[in-house]
Amino acid sequence: MKIRKWLRILHRDIGYLGVGLTVVFAVSGIAVNHINDWNPNYSIENSITKIDVVPNLDGEEMVKHVLNELKISEKPNGWHRTSPQRLQIFLEGITLDVNLKNGHIVQEKIEPRFMLRAFNILHLNEPKKAWTWFSDLYAVSLLFLAISGVFFLKGKKGWKWRGTWMVAIGVVIPYLFLLYYS
Amino acid sequence: MTLKSVIIASLILAGILFANDIKNLGEKLTLNESTAISEINKAPESFLGKTVLVEGRVIDVCKKRGCWVKIAGDKEYESILVKVEDGVIVFPVEAKGKMAKVEGTIEKVEYTLEQTKERAKQKCEMEGKEFDEAKVTKPDVMYRLRAIGAAIEM
Fold first, then answer.
1. Cβ-defined contact of A93 to B99 (cutoff 8 Å)
2. Contacts of A110 in chain B (CB under 8 A)
3. Among A96, A57, A80, A78, which Cα is nearest to B74's?
4. Coil, strand or helix at B118
């Protein structure tokens, strides 16, 4: 009786503490599950513009010329010539890929997805270090929530009948997937 | 002051305190002296298996998993591909255009003739050129940096 009471109290409070992280991991889990269909971290927009053929100038001068043609006053973070025909200009969050031969410019705009980028950083353990231990602790608390939840109720709705069957179904379903896909 | 405002103020303060201009990824850099990318590209075989530190502007990043970056060389048209184990280091796409230092070992990747043709075809498609399969007669070799640590000026 006493153990059940404590299980309930711990289950409740650990559950409350885990709400934030559960939302983070669940939302990010869905987003990352579909990585083949979309980019879960960034929204990337490509647009094409055209200017007149870029005259053969020095690197810096060439960058100034392109930015003037595009009426961009922002100072670039840098630039790079990837080949005699290609010039890359890096602005904040934007890359201009200039074809010097024909004046075609591919403008790539990258923006981190609101909230999702942050969720994915945590879910995929990009920070490493202390976050690894903290998320391990969260995983252990999830184990506790799962196991303690099973022993909450006594009688037919608990471990004696309903609980056993429901847990069994929950184990068998992923096992069937495993059999089917292996 | 209510508890809510204390929490919000603490979160803002933490954001300011933890904001960092240099983003360190993976293991801490151990080398102080960098090797010019042009030196590596000139004689890659002599750098095979050696640990080097390279410096330069990030000109491309793997957009899906952040598992590779390209670092511009010290000479025009030159660059080096930096690869990491998936998930060990994740390069942020925002790193594109920023200066970076990367430490790792130089490794060699040998492609089959089929793979070489496929790569050449993709390159031609990207550059809008016509692909002539007959011109690809030898399997390609690529030298890249297997990174263990990086520092990016964000």
1. no
2. 63, 93-94, 96
3. A80
4. helix
Asked if residue B30 belongs to a domain, the reply is yes
Say what the ipTM of the complex is: 0.82
Domain ranges of chain A: 2-39+121-181, 42-112
The domain tally of chain B equals: 1
CA distance A155 to chain B (A): 43
B93/A110 touch (CB, cutoff 8 Å), yes or no: yes
Instruction: Report the Cα A144 to chain-centroid distance in Å.
Output: 26
Q: Which residues pair with B26 in a beta bridge?
A: B149
Residue A151 touches partner B, C-beta closer than 8 Å: no
**CA angle centred on B37, ends A92 and B128, rounded to 5°:** 60
pLDDT of residue A39: 94
Q: What is the pLDDT of residues A15-71, one digit of tens each?
A: 999 999 999 999 999 999 999 999 999 999 999 999 998 888 888 999 999 999 999
* pLDDT, tens digit, 9 for 90 and up, residues A166-181: 999 999 999 999 999 9
Note whether A174 contacts B: Cβ–Cβ < 8 A: no
> Which residues constitute the domain of residue B25?
21-153
The reply to whether B16 falls in a domain is no
Q: pLDDT value at position B35? A: 98
Interface list for B 3-32 with A (CB within 8 A): none
Angle formed at CA A95 by CA A92 and CA A100, multiple of 5 degrees: 140
CATH code at B108? 2.40.50.140
Q: Is residue B121 assigned to a domain?
A: yes
State the DSSP string of B31-75.
--SPPPHHHHHHSGGGGBT-EEEEEEEEEEE-TTT--EEEEE-SS
